[in-house]
Design brief:
By secondary structure, the chain is of the alpha/beta class. It contains eight helices and nine strands. The strands form two sheets. The protein has a seven-stranded mixed β-sheet with strand order 5-2-1-6-7-9-8, with helices on both faces. Strand 1, helix 3 and strand 2 form a beta-alpha-beta unit. Helix 6 runs parallel beside helix 7 (153-166) and helix 7 (153-166) packs parallel to helix 8 (181-190). The two termini are 23 Å apart.
């Protein structure tokens, strides 16, 4: 537990001296039985979430692991916490700004602490590409990757190719927003569709 946090931060505690914001549970499709289904199949120790927003899915993944009776695991959340094109274009009202910058990171961290999950959830505030390169360079092998970052074709294609390349054999990728055509096209172009499991708004693929 906390192995990636130790690699990234050493003795630095990212939660130290955090000025807590009130809880904000806003999210999209954060609760889903797909997590439990594929956690039961994969039995992960290291879960990576690519695109986490305010941490709803990260908390759901953590809760699923704890309900399974597992304590030795880590959920690493990769996000710039600055919002994506969709947020700035259509849903900027969901972001609280301070000096022109979203405080999504502070809200994510506060939500994690309010849930009591800071022991298991590690923030990694970088973009998806640099997060992947860091894992690749440091030979960190995830067991399960949840992808919910950019929703345009090229971003999704890149995330799928990148994270599938370092996922452990038998590991799983879960993706969100399966209803969006660019996401379906990217998945079809990267994976054998016979190995893709459709689960409502989500999909999964096992390596």
């Amino acid at each position: 537990m906390g192995q990636v946090r130790d690699i990234l931060f050493g003795s630095h505690d990212p939660y130290a001296n955090l000025e807590l914001l009130p809880p904000n549970d806003h999210g999209w499709s954060s609760e889903d039985l797909t997590y439990k289904e594929f956690i039961d199949i994969v039995n992960p120790k290291l879960i990576v979430e690519v695109g986490t927003w305010m941490g709803g899915s990260a908390r759901a993944l953590t809760r699923t692991m704890l309900e399974k009776g597992v304590d030795d695991f880590e959920v690493v959340c990769i996000d710039t916490f600055l919002g994506s094109f969709e947020h700035w274009d259509k849903t900027a009202y969901l972001m609280s700004l301070k000096n022109g910058r979203p405080n999504t990171y502070e809200q994510f961290m506060s939500n994690t602490v309010h849930a009591g999950y800071q022991k298991w959830i590690t923030p990694f505030p970088v973009d998806a590409q640099n997060g992947f390169l860091t894992f690749q360079t440091m030979n960190i092998v995830p067991d399960l990757v949840y992808i919910d970052a950019g929703h345009d074709y090229h971003s999704v294609w890149n995330d799928l190719v990148n994270w599938a390349s370092i996922l452990r054999p038998g590991g799983a990728i879960i993706g969100d927003d399966w209803q969006h055509p660019p996401i379906k096209q990217a998945v079809a172009d990267v994976f054998d569709m016979e190995k893709v499991h459709e689960r409502g708004a989500k999909f999964a693929w096992i390596k």
